[in-house]
Design brief:
With 103 residues, this protein is mainly α. The chain is built from four helices and no strands.
């Protein structure tokens, strides 16, 4: 039984780290550029570029939710919101012309 609890904790922590990587990396890179004295540039598209990391983390958290039979609705809703947000953001970029590279 102890082995299952340890595996569940490892999966939950790893999934959470994978979820937070695309959120924290743009902030870390922006602060790094600010400290080095260069122009401040925030790459707001990096979470979309690192979406596979979000999917890996979400998959691990879904696995944990199913294993523990806890917070399943929250995890599935969060995954759905993430996917819809990515698709809506990409669609908005195409419709407004930001994805064409002209602007």
């Amino acid at each position: 039984m102890q082995k299952n609890v340890l595996l569940t904790k490892i999966l939950a922590i790893t999934g959470t780290v994978f979820i937070w990587i695309p959120i924290l990396l743009p902030i870390v890179f922006t602060i790094t550029r600010l400290i080095s004295g260069r122009r401040v540039v925030f790459d707001y598209l990096m979470p979309a570029e690192l979406f596979p990391a979000i999917l890996i983390g979400a998959g691990l958290l879904v696995w944990v939710a199913i294993r523990t039979r806890s917070h399943r609705k929250l995890v599935f809703w969060s995954l759905g919101v993430a996917v819809v947000s990515l698709v809506a953001g990409q669609l908005l970029a195409v419709v407004t012309g930001l994805a064409s590279g002209e602007r």
